[in-house]
């Protein structure tokens, strides 16, 4: 008969690390009693004692006979509490996605969790993915080797049912097609609403919008047309709203928008001066950089046309930005999105009552202040 004493002790040790993190204990704080821990973890007194002794030997806790167990070192770096799966694409040509994965790993590390990436194994892209596309993910879920899942892709209905049947909570992060599932999404619609209203109030007349498109194509069209009707009724939305890629590609590709961005810049520049946009919203840092530099390239004179820009910048990758004051921007913090995603998932893992499981992330608006 196999002795599972060691595995039971290791599980209890992991659970204690989770408790220290979940309760946000500081050095000198007292841990829950043996009786409470036995009830919470569903193990015997001897297992609890072995786990505490192991943490005591590592210098994490201090045992005071007849008094209790106290936290000696609040730094649990290197200790693993929960195992969290991350379902993600092979992000060969997606710098924001690579940054997101790094930030998720940092946030999980700081919460004493082990991030376990499961990579999508085929190149063909779909609107919704099945768990079977991620090598080893279904097996780890069935064998209870992960406690929760963060997904950077949208999962299909059968995958959702499989996760629910195995009591594995899932949180979507950054961009998802499933607006009814728990997750943290970038609120592009609010960004467009706020920007167009603000530009109207400041007297701009001809507003344009340029964006990548999929998977937010429908939302971008809806937001621009709605605000154009409300604030710029004489504007032709079809002429000034430029979505560069309406549909999903079948395969991940290197950057392919160069030509489309250059053509869009040339189209606006070739308009009669009285029809050119006086303000352009571009919720993408790389497209902003390309669009701005294309306008500089096409106009080799001092009296150049340069609209007022409202654009997006990335705190983690600040190099995709113009070198001069061209308007205002929204500062997107990928680390904050990762923090919100990990926090939401761990609340769900702990069975906490989470009234709002869909968090809309709003980047900070920054308006340049020219130096005197």
State the shape: elongated
Largest sheet: 6 strands, parallel
Kindly report the oligomeric state of this protein.
single chain
Supply the helix-strand structural class.
alpha/beta
Distance between the termini: 80 Å
> Which CATH architecture of the largest domain would you pick?
3-Layer(aba) Sandwich
Residue-averaged pLDDT, rounded? 87
Strand numbers in spatial order across the main sheet: 4-3-5-6-7-13
The stretches of 5 or more residues where confidence is low (pLDDT under 50) are 1-5
Task: Count up the helices.
Answer: 12
Radius of gyration, Cα only, in angstroms? Answer: 26 Å
Number of domains: 3
The CATH topology of the largest domain is what? Rossmann fold
CATH superfamily of the largest domain: Response regulator
Q: Give the tally of β-strands.
A: 14
Kindly describe this structure.
A 6-stranded parallel β-sheet has the order 4-3-5-6-7-13. The protein has a 6-stranded mixed β-sheet with strand order 9-8-10-11-12-14, sandwiched between helices. Residues 1-5 have low confidence and may be disordered. The protein is elongated and about 85 Å long. It has helices at 5-22, 34-41, 45-57, 95-110, 137-142, 157-165, 188-201, 217-231, 237-240, 258-269, 285-298, 334-349, and strands at residues 61-64, 68-71, 82-88, 113-119, 148-151, 170-174, 183-186, 207-213, 241-245, 279-282, 308-314, 327-332, 358-361, 364-367. It has 12 helices and 14 strands. 39% of the residues lie in helices and 19% in strands. The chain has 3 domains: 5-71, Winged helix-like DNA-binding domain superfamily/Winged helix DNA-binding domain (Arc Repressor Mutant, subunit A, Orthogonal Bundle); 82-181 and 336-362, Response regulator (Rossmann fold, 3-Layer(aba) Sandwich); 188-332, 3-Layer(aba) Sandwich (Rossmann fold), CATH 3.40.50.2300. Strand 10, helix 11 and strand 11 (308-314) form a beta-alpha-beta unit. It is of the alpha/beta class. Helix 1 (5-22) packs across helix 3 (45-57).
């Amino acid at each position: 008969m196999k002795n599972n004493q060691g595995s039971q002790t290791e599980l209890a040790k992991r659970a204690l690390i989770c408790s220290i993190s979940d309760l946000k204990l500081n050095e000198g704080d007292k841990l829950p009693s043996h009786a409470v821990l036995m009830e919470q973890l569903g193990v015997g007194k001897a297992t609890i004692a072995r786990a505490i002794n192991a943490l005591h030997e590592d210098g994490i806790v201090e045992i005071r006979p007849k008094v209790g167990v106290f936290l000696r070192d609040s730094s649990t770096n290197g200790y693993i509490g929960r195992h969290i799966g991350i379902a993600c694409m092979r992000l060969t040509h997606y710098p924001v996605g690579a940054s997101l994965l790094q930030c998720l790993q940092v946030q999980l590390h700081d919460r004493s969790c082990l991030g376990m990436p499961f990579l999508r194994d085929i190149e063909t892209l779909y609107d919704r993915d099945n768990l079977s596309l991620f090598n080893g993910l279904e097996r780890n879920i069935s064998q209870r080797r992960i406690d929760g899942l963060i997904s950077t892709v949208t999962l299909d209905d059968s995958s959702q049912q499989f996760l629910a049947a195995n009591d594995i909570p899932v949180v979507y992060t950054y961009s998802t097609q499933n607006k009814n599932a728990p997750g943290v999404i970038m609120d592009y619609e609010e960004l467009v609403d706020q920007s167009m209203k603000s530009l109207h109030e400041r007297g701009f007349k001809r507003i344009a919008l340029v964006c990548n498109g999929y998977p937010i194509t429908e939302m971008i069209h809806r937001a621009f047309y709605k605000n154009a009707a409300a604030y710029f009724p004489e504007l032709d939305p079809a002429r000034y709203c430029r979505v560069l890629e309406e549909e999903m590609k079948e395969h991940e590709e290197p950057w392919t928008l160069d030509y489309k961005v250059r053509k869009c810049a040339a189209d606006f520049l070739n308009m009669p001066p009285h029809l050119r946009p006086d303000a352009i919203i571009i919720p993408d840092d790389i497209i902003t950089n390309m669009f701005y530099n294309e306008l500089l390239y096409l106009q080799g004179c001092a009296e150049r046309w340069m609209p007022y820009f409202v654009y997006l910048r990335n705190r983690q990758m600040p190099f995709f930005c113009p070198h001069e004051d061209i308007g205002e921007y929204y500062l997107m913090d990928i680390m904050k999105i990762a923090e919100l995603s990990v926090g939401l998932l761990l609340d769900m893992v702990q069975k906490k009552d989470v009234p709002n499981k869909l968090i809309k992330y709003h980047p900070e608006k920054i308006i340049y202040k020219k130096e005197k």
